[in-house]
Design a protein that fits this description.
about 60 residues, alpha+beta, Ribosomal Protein L30, Chain: A, 2 helices, globular
Amino acid sequence: MKKVRITQIKSGIGRPKRQKATLEALGFKRLNQSVEVEMNPAIAGMVDAVKHLLKIEEL
């Protein structure tokens, strides 16, 4: 699997609970935080659900 760097670029404030929970499950605690994860179908689904709040870069 390929590794990607995901950065939260927009706030979760005012978003549905499900989107906030997805951000937390991806490991985000604050704005502009980056996490490096191995892309798999589960992570891809979570990223797709909140892609409007994230920036994705391949490593």
